[in-house]
Please model this.
Amino acid sequence: MTLRCIAVDDESMGRKLLEENIKQIPFLELVRTCKNPFEAMQALQEEKIDLMFLDIQMPGMLGTKFLQSLREKPLVIFVTAYANYAVESYDLDVVDYLMKPVSLERFTKATYKALEIYTKNHMAATAPATVSTEPATKADEFPEFFFINVEYSLVKIVIKDITHIEGLKDYIKIFLTTQTKPILTKSTMKAIEEKLPSKQFMRIHKSFIVNTDKIESIRGQRIKIGIHDIPVSESSIDELLKLLNYSK
Model:
C-alpha cells in the first residue's frame, strides 16, 4: 500500500528535509512540495492526497487554521518548531505532532502510525454497508462554511449566506447576502457543487446553482432572487418544483 503525500513548509530547508525523510519511507510517494497553504489547497484539489506533512507557523495563514478550513481532510502530521500548538492539534485529530529538528526514527514512527490509520479507514470504507438505526449526530451534519482561494488569500464562505452561484468557464461567481459584489474564484461548477448540501442547493442550469431558500418567485423558466433574474433549464424545472414541495 502506498500513501500519496504532500509536504507544506514556507522554509526551503524545511521542505528539503521533509523530502529527504519521505524518500526513506518505502510506502510514501511525494506528490508535491508546497510553500504555503494556498499551494497546498491547489494540490489537494488537483491530486489524490492521502497524507499531508504540514508546518504551522507560515505567513498568511497558520497551518492549524488551514486544516480547519478543509472540508475533506487527508491524514495530517504537523511538523513544527513550536510546541504551543500541541493541545490544539489534538482537537484537530491529526496523526502526530513532530517537533523540529525531526529525527528519521521519530519521523518513521509517525508515518507508520499514519499507515496504520489509513489501512483501518480503507478497510472500513470497503467493508459491506450495514443499516444503522442510530439517530444522526452532529458529526453527520453538513459544515457551515468552507474556504476558497481569492487573489492569493483564503476567504471564508458561510453556506447559508450564498444566494446563488454563476459559472464562467474556469471561474465562478459566488453571490452572498452579506455583500453587494460577488466573489470571483477559479473553480468549476462541479467542484463547488460538492461543497454544498444538496437539500438546500440545486443546479438549475449549466451555469447556475441556487440556494432554494433564497428563491422569491418563479415565472415560467425564470426565478427571482433579489435583483437577479436567473434562468432554469427545461430539464430542471420539474425537479426544482418538486424540491420546493410544489405540486401542480
User: Anything to note?
Assistant: Residues 143-243 form a domain with the OB fold (Dihydrolipoamide Acetyltransferase, E2P) fold (CATH 2.40.50.1020).
